Amino acid sequence: MPSIDVVIDLTYDECLAYYAGSVANVRTRSLDGRRVVFPAEALRRVVTRDGVHGLYRLTFSPEGRFQRIQPLALR
After folding, report:
1. Integer Cα distance of 64 and 2 in angstroms
2. Residue 47 structural domain
3. What is the pLDDT of residues 18-30, one digit of tens each?
4. Segment holding 14, helix H or strand E
5. Whole-prediction pTM
6. pLDDT less than 50: residues of the chain
7. In the chain, N or C: fewer CB atoms in 10 Å?
8. Residue 30 carries which DSSP code?
């Protein structure tokens, strides 16, 4: 399964739009500069009362569908 490492730095208030479903996808950049899009609902697995801050590994199927988000280093 392909994976991409990304830094996510969102406050709790910024996460609310994603969490409430008003925003469908998160757009960010990988550590190597690639553009990455994944479902906003994935943030529900990692959001805290401080938001989402840290380095995460996103795992995708061979077809490119998002499968998992895994924290690697939290800030």
Report:
1. 8
2. 3-74
3. 767 778 888 999 9
4. helix 12-19
5. 0.86
6. none
7. N
8. B
Structure token pair of residue 67:
């499968």
In angstroms, rounded to a whole number, what is the distance separating the alpha carbons of residues 67 and 60? 5
Structure tokens at 24: 């469908």
Quick one: which H or E segment has residue 18? helix 12-19
Tokens of residue 63, six digits: 């077809």
Cα 11 to its chain centre, rounded Å, is 13
How far is residue 23's CA from residue 40's CA, in Å, rounded to a whole number? 7
CATH number at residue 59: 2.40.50
Question: Residue 34: what pLDDT?
Answer: 92
